[in-house]
């Protein structure tokens, strides 16, 4: 149930973004993102898809006395959600330029500046989607908030011009698949968290 809801939310966001990108063209789509007034705020959203937020989740797991299987699910799932995009970026598609290196006249953020190349897929989007589903399984009442934050991580990567739409969509797909597989194979056995 929770996985289906997450998949629906991320799929809807993906279709909307892909449609807007197709209608405007990739370069014009990125130029239009500069009209979003909260460019600086997006730096705060983007860190929800990196190791700093992983440390916050780990602290939360300590405080709630998480089970061994929850720790294994979190650690291995986070590692896979972070490493799979790195394999794509470094070994399969290392020459893909990021939007700020291609599109002229867009804002460029000096914060968290990634390499000019190695754009596909988005690692932050993958990790953000993994975190969203991992947390939604444990606090189902807040799943809408977690899904929104996971989607927000991907949006922040585009607003900051670190990733193209297809980078983000691929990252979301990786993160959701990793979370589902981790819960199904490593998660607490007393509940399926709606993964079946």
Your description of this structure?
The structure is a single chain. By secondary structure, the protein is mainly α. The protein has a single domain (about 1-20, about 45-185), classed as Phosphatidic acid phosphatase type 2/haloperoxidase (Vanadium-containing Chloroperoxidase, domain 1, Up-down Bundle), CATH 1.20.144. About 65% of the residues lie in helices and about 0% in strands. The protein has eight helices and no strands. The chain has helices at about 1-25, 25-35, 40-45, 50-65, 70-90, 125-140, 145-160, 165-185. α1 (about 1-25) packs antiparallel against α8. The termini are close together. The model has no long low-confidence stretch (mean pLDDT about 90).
Number of distinct helices: 8
| Rg, alpha carbons | 17 Å
**Mind describing the biggest β-sheet?**
none
Order of helices and strands: HHHHHHHH
Ends distance: 8 Å
Gross morphology is globular
Proportion of residues in helical segments: 55-70%
Can you identify the CATH superfamily?
Phosphatidic acid phosphatase type 2/haloperoxidase
Return the domain count: 1
- Counting DSSP E segments of at least 2 residues, the number of strands comes to 0
CATH class bucket: Mainly Alpha
Would you identify the regions where 5 or more consecutive residues have pLDDT less than 50? Answer: none
Strand content: under 5%
CATH-level-2 architecture: Up-down Bundle
Provide the CATH topology.
Answer: Vanadium-containing Chloroperoxidase, domain 1
What structural class do you assign from the helix and strand content? mainly alpha
Mean pLDDT: 90
Q: What's the assembly state of these chains? A: single chain
């Amino acid at each position: 149930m929770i996985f289906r809801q997450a998949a629906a939310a991320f799929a809807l966001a993906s279709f909307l973004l892909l449609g807007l990108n197709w209608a405007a063209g990739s370069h014009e789509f990125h130029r239009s993102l500069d009209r979003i007034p909260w460019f600086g705020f997006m730096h705060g959203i983007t860190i929800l898809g990196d190791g700093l937020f992983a440390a916050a989740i780990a602290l939360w797991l300590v405080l709630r006395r998480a089970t061994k299987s929850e720790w294994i699910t979190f650690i291995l799932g986070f590692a896979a959600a972070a490493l799979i995009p790195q394999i794509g970026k470094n070994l399969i598609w290392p020459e893909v330029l990021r939007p700020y290196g291609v599109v002229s006249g867009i804002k460029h953020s000096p914060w968290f500046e990634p390499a000019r190349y190695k754009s596909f897929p988005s690692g932050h989007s993958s990790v953000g989607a993994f975190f969203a589903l991992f947390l939604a399984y444990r606090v189902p009442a807040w799943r809408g908030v977690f899904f929104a934050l996971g989607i927000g991580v991907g949006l922040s990567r585009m607003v900051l011009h670190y990733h193209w739409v297809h980078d983000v969509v691929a990252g979301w797909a990786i993160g959701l698949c990793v979370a589902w597989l981790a819960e199904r194979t490593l998660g607490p056995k007393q509940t399926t968290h709606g993964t079946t």
